[in-house]
Amino acid sequence: xxxxxxxxxxxxxxxxxxxxxxxxxxxxxxxxxxxxxxxxxxxxxxxxxxxxxxxxxxxxxxxxxxxxxxxxxxxxxxxxxxxxxxxxxxxxxxxxxxxxxxxxxxxxxxxxxxxxxxxxxxxxxxxxxxxxxxxxxxxxxxxxxxxxxxxxxxxxxxxxxxxxxxxxxxxxxxxxxxxxxxxxxxxxxxxxxxxxxxxxxxxxxxxxxxxxxxxxxxxxxxxxxxx
Length: 227
Prior knowledge:
Number of strands: 9
Radius of gyration: 27 Å
CATH architecture of the largest domain: 2-Layer Sandwich
Structural class: alpha+beta
Order of helices and strands: HEEEHEEHEHEEE
Low-confidence stretches: 1-17, 193-202
Distance between the termini: 17 Å
Oligomer: single chain
Helix content: 25-40%
Mean pLDDT: 85
């Protein structure tokens, strides 16, 4: 048992043996090219009149939604994330004065053709101008179930390799699996923050790199020891 405790520190993970067997943790990861993207953005308008700010916001929002639909973004993929109307103040010489009323309408939009993302962003900024702020862009896969299943397979393989090392180092033979517990399964999604600015050239376009997304899994496996 003392020998096994030394192995625990060497591996720096959940690896240990007991009278009933060897218990290990295993991890697996699968990566792929994303086929969907998500954008979060907001339309901001400011005016001395709350009513005027709201009307202007609605006008710009309608133009943006029409632009998205013209780019083949389905209505079900356009969702309001928040809507806020509030007074905005500025401070000068320790005095607070009303700057105006700000209206913010934020959205989450799913793009199911990642190659069109750059052009869609260009159209959004063209329609909304300085009223739009694009906060985050993230990528994913429309069907992640096969990736999850494969990552679980790799997790079990990883656990078995660790158990074999422990068994060999301990002078015992690895037996059958007593139990397996799935500890976690998560999609690793790259997320990028963006601050949109007007293009210096009229023919310039936004180029977005999607990179890769991955699925990570973790399992805990209890192996028996052969007599």
